[in-house]
Amino acid sequence: MNIEEKTGFSTPFEWIGGEARVRALADRFYDLMDLEPGYAQLRAVHGSELHDARQKLFWFLCGWLGGPQHYTERFGHPRLKQRHLPFKVGLIERDQWLACMDQAMQEAAVPEDLRARLNKAFFQTADWMRNQAH
Ligand code: HEM
Prior knowledge:
The chain is globular. It is 68% helix and 0% strand. Helix 3 (19-35) packs across helix 8 and helix 8 packs antiparallel against helix 9. The protein has 9 helices and no strands. By secondary structure, the protein is mostly helical. The site of protoporphyrin IX containing FE has 22 residues, from helix 4, helix 5, helix 7, helix 8 and helix 9.
């Protein structure tokens, strides 16, 4: 579907409101992961420090949404599945990641239609990244 025809924005990056809004989303995502008991298994896969992950998710999302390619400029192709091999990504982790991101999108005031589309796209990516059956 051509998002420009429907929304007037040429990319999801424009639609979300640019870098400041992507930063707010990545920050809220990792704050929630740290705070909410419902995301404890997801939190446990991460190290004690979330600073690098927070920064990298922000860079990645800018490019993934059709904005500046900060992540690939620094690290090359994302190869997300390969980069996640050291971490347990099973059904619980996948579902907590998706729920955490959905809550972050709500709290960061991502427009409703965009949030619905991104939830679908995140599901595809997160499910493909699973490296355990359970
Ligand atoms: C499905 C469950 C997921 C789990 C359990 C998970 C877990 C992790 C962990 C533990 C890290 C390392 C953090 C660090 O360096 O301190 C990481 C990095 C990262 N994750 Fe995920 N993740 C998941 C899904 C996703 C999804 C769906 C995306 C993108 C849409 C994503 C994007 C990233 C990026 C860009 C990095 C940084 C990679 C790097 O350059 O090191 N993750 N993730």
